[in-house]
From TrEMBL:
Occurrences of domain Nudix hydrolase (ranges): 1-139
Record keywords: Hydrolase
Gene3D superfamilies named among the record's database cross-references: Nucleoside Triphosphate Pyrophosphohydrolase, Winged helix-like DNA-binding domain superfamily/Winged helix DNA-binding domain
Coiled-coil segments: none
The name this protein goes by in its record: NUDIX domain-containing protein
Amino acid sequence: MGHPPFAVTVDLVVLTLTGDELCALVVRRGISPYEGEWALPGGFVRADEDLPDAARRELAEETGLAPGTVHIEQLAGYGAPDRDPRMRVVTVAYLALAPDLPTPRAGTDAAEARWAPVRSLVTERLAFDHDQILRDGLERARAKLEYSPLATAFCPPEFTVAELRRVYELVWDTRLDPRNFHRKVTGAEGLLEPTGRTTTRDGGRPARLYRRGKAELLYPPMLRA
C-alpha cells in the first residue's frame, strides 16, 4: 500500500507597528487553491533546508529583510488532514516581529502583499487555517510581553519609555498609566539599559534613551493594570 503525497511548509505571522496600528503581513494568493484570497506568507520547505532556514528565506522573500534583522521564533505546528486540499500538508508556523518594516513585496505565488491592521484581520476569513495561526501568533506576542523583553523587538535600537509604552498599548489594545508604566519598566531588572543620551522626538522635554537590557525573563511580570 503506497503512502499519499506529503509535504511540509512554513507559515509566518509577521507583526509590525505602522502608525498607530499593530499590523500583520498578508498576501493575496495568485494560484490555486484559494486563488485571490488573503493568506499569511509562507511556502514549501526545500529538500535541503532546515525549518528555521526556510522561515528566514520566506521572510526575506516577502519583506526584503536580511536574516538576523528581525526577531523570529517558532510558534506551533498545524497538521489537520484536510487543512490543504492539494495533499497532506503539515505546516510549522513562525512568529516574526520588527519595528517599522518596509512595504512588503509579493512572492512568486502571490498577487499582492500588504500590511493589514490586526484588529480587522481577526474578524476576516483567511485561506487554509491561517486565521487560527494568526490568532495564535497574536496571543503568543501578547502573552510574552508579560514576562519577557519581547516588546523591545518592536522598538528601534534606542528608544524612550514612551515609545516602549506605545508598543504595549498597541499589542495589548489597552491604555496604560504613563507614570505606573515608567516605574515598572525602569525598575524591572535587566529590561532597559540607559544610553546616557536624550531625545525630543516624543515632543516636550528631552526624554532619556534606552536600549534593550540583558534580561531574558521579567520578574515580576509586567502587569496590564
